[in-house]
Amino acid sequence: MKLKVLDAELTICQVADAADIDLKAGLCFIGKTDEELSLVCETEAAPARTLARSDGWRAFRIEGVLDFSLVGILARISAILAARNIGIFAVSTFNTDYILVKKENLDRALEALEKEGYEVN
């Protein structure tokens, strides 16, 4: 399975108002529940007003379009990284999954995944 490393540094944050989110900026994931409005975005595009914020994330994605019938893809990646004490923040889209790790763990995460047979670009 191929993984593609994204270039941008990312921020994960909670925002009070969707109007603060720049939808024209690069990568942007929004999650809204009855309890919160969360945003993952490139750090330079993070809103000035946030309720909580965590900077210093990097991401990679599983290349290609994943069929909904596939089972265990994210579970396997998270298990490999958990065994090396690397925490993740995962985001799924219609096409694929994105896995975020703190930037200081990116190289270790990619090395671990390569040792388990993943191809990293």
Q: What does this 3D model show about the protein?
A:
By secondary structure, this protein is an alpha+beta fold. It has one domain (2-120): VC0802-like (2-Layer Sandwich). The protein has two helices and eight strands. Strand 6 and strand 7 (97-102) form a beta hairpin. The N and C termini lie close together (11 Å).
Provide a compact summary of the structure.
The protein is of the alpha+beta class and 121 residues long. The protein has one domain (2-120): VC0802-like, CATH 3.30.2130.10. 17% of the residues lie in helices and 36% in strands.
Task: Write the SSE topology.
Elements: E1 2-5, E2 10-14, E3 28-32, E4 37-42, E5 52-62, H1 73-82, E6 89-92, E7 97-102, H2 106-115, E8 119-120
Q: Are there runs of 5+ residues with pLDDT below 50, and where?
A: none
The helix fraction, in percent, is: 10-25%
> How many strands?
8
Question: Radius of gyration from the CA trace?
Answer: 15 Å
Q: What fraction of the residues are assigned to beta strands by DSSP?
A: 35-45%
Q: CATH top level?
A: Alpha Beta
